[in-house]
Write a structure and sequence with these properties.
The chain is α/β, with parallel strands linked by helices. Helices cover about 45% and strands about 15% of the residues. Helix 2 runs antiparallel to helix 12. The chain starts with 7 loop residues before the first helix and ends with a helix.
Length: about 350
Amino acid sequence: MRHPIAHRPARRAVLVRTAALLALGVAPSFPLLAAGPTLLNVSYDVAREFFKEINPAFQRSWKQQTGEDIKIDQSHGGSSKQARAVLDGLEADVVTMNQSSDIDVLATRGKLIPEDWSKRLPNNAAPTSSVTVILVRKGNPKGISDWGDLAKPGTSVVIPNPKITGNGRYTYVAAWGSVLKAGGTPAQARALVQKIFANVPVFDGGGRAATTTFAQRSIGDALCTFESEVNLIRSEFGDNFEVVYPKSTILAENPVSVIDKVVDKKGTRKQAEAYLKFLWSDEAQEIAARHQLRPRSAALLAKYGKDFPKVQTFTIDEFFGGWTKAQKDHFDDGAIYDQILAKKS
């Protein structure tokens, strides 16, 4: 029998690694001494619950296929903050984001992945989608039914910071694009967005923080969020809210990519690619539907149709020329969003 002291170096190494992960905002999965490779999935803020169910499902599937145990660590935060963390050296095996620009930057600035990364998997490498909706308090006391109602004086709207969160940017482009979809002009779109953002009392750094502000701290008359968050908010904070589907809204696609430089360095490419491909499997698509993420599977979308009301949507390409152009025109330093915010103050 080995003396207990023989385990101390291994335990010390595990504790050091765990402390390093926690310092980076990464939640280590357990058991800490699991055999086999470890993958790090760097993801956006409101995908926590989804991957809590996806990860063990993939681990079981991979074990059945290969006999190999695999460990998956998660890191969550505002999507652009997460992209910057990867650029700054956080060694993600995969990223699972809610907009393509936060993966594009890993190709253009970081040279961590090829620029055609979105062509490597189906559906432009986005296994799920959602739509941006408006959550209001029970009874809808402000009578909110569309984006224009959020611009009215005396209406307080909770939106996470568009400079660092995909959730916030999706709200911005949803409101802007709704004007264009109805035949309005860019000037009218800008005026609407400016009024809405003048009604925002606090800009949180992530979708989950914005939810806490609205649901737990009871700040605001409305919360702009993803459809996929609604049932989670109700389960956590009670059935005190109603969801409003605007007349038109943005289709939010959730793209994913392997980080080539990391997986090739670590020797985890095979596992990382399998992990992402698993997101298109029937099992993963069913999990997505249960988490109110719109699956790509037509059969499952029909099966869960009552959870996904038909809504008029538009894409980022349709009115903004894609996320790269939208980022430059609207969200880069000094661009339209900064100009709007300057007028707010």
